[in-house]
Amino acid sequence: MGKIVAEISVSLDGYVAGPSPTLENPLGEGGDQLHEWVFPLKSWREPHGLPGGETGPDDELVAESLRATGAVVMGRRMFSGGEGPWENDTNANGWWGDDPPFHKPVFVLTHHAREPLVMEGGTTFTFVTEDLENAIEDARAAAAEQDVLIAGGADAIDQSINAGLVDELLLHLAPVLLGGGARLFDGVGPAVPRFEVTQVLESPLVTHLRYRAVRA
Question: What's the pTM?
Answer without folding.
Answer: 0.95
